[in-house]
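Annex B. Sample input.
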Amino acid sequence: MKLILATLISLLVAPSLGAQAKPDWRAATMEELKAALPLRAPVEKERIETEMRTASGIVNSRGEVIAGVVLITAGYSADGKYSHFLVVQAPITIADIALAPGSYVFGWQRTDEALAVKFYDASTGVERGTATAHRMPQGGRVESFRLWPPADQSIIQIGRFSIPYRLTK
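Annex B, continued. Sample output.
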């Protein structure tokens, strides 16, 4: 009887054969962000300081982190080109830009109604694509950078603007 009960419980709790349980995502703690993000981000041939108080990210039940932070680019060749550093440990698609696990940087330029946000590979500077960040509805808090957990809203917030994302794993 105990064996039958244990078998029934394991069938109810365990994912079916061949299928993997989809990880749950939540906001990362400051300790998790400090462990994932560098104090000096490797960007092309430089190591650019980060502003850790602006760090934001998400973590899943497997411990994979997607997180970003503002770069302090004054005095570096990246000044005016890059504004943020992004660590991706699980595949993500931002707007239509698919990013595999790795390190990325992005910068933005203001247009009439939105922000044109360009993503680059952090180590090489190779452009990965451009996304449009649209103004968020009024009443929300302005953030230098915020990666919202998918349970709240699947967006990356830059100031008063946001870009949609989706987790691709």
